Amino acid sequence: DGGITQSPKYLFRKEGQNVTLSCEQNLNHDAMYWYRQDPGQGLRLIYYSQIVNDFQKGDIAEGYSVSREKKESFPLTVTSAQKNPTAFYLCASSPPNSGNTIYFGEGSWLTVV
Amino acid sequence: GNSVTQMEGPVTLSEEAFLTINCTYTATGYPSLFWYVQYPGEGLQLLLKATKADDKGSNKGFEATYRKETTSFHLEKGSVQVSDSAVYFCALKGNAGGTSYGKLTFGQGTILTVHP
To answer: Using CB atoms, which residue from A40, A42, A45 is nearest to B89?
Structure first.
């Protein structure tokens, strides 16, 4: 089945560690996105990528990094510079048309301990 | 910039009650508008969408009409069920400046709880 797969579903990180969240899609979509969700704040855009080997900062990129070496994959690294990383992270993708829907993965919970 | 404002929740209803969740937006150009639903512990699922003024999106008994004159996209359902309990997000995808890869701007979400 086509879709967006995020892993791991739950992740615990110690202070000062970098962690990488995986996002893979087999929908043949050009664009991919990472959002962060905090209670009562909706979703905020971290990074997005329109094509392979290209990505742009979103509204809250500080403390995060991404890569887009393959069309299917858009991993997100939460670095130790991110001051408050505990959140629910959602990966999404869409085909290249402004009216088309953005599809979301199931999300990854990151908790700093 | 673009923004979306949803009515504050939580909203608590009895089964078979009528539902309205208000959503208004600010955007340049002609954005596409969406409602997404999130069930506990899950990602977001598209509920419905509208891509131009006066379009009505509908799905699973939910409806929303793109009203450019009032910059609104209110979500309605005539008779809610317990299984509709979830968080609902209004969102827009801007078209300003010829952007073909629109980024979604979300409202803060509205928690809906339906009791039997």
So the answer is: A42
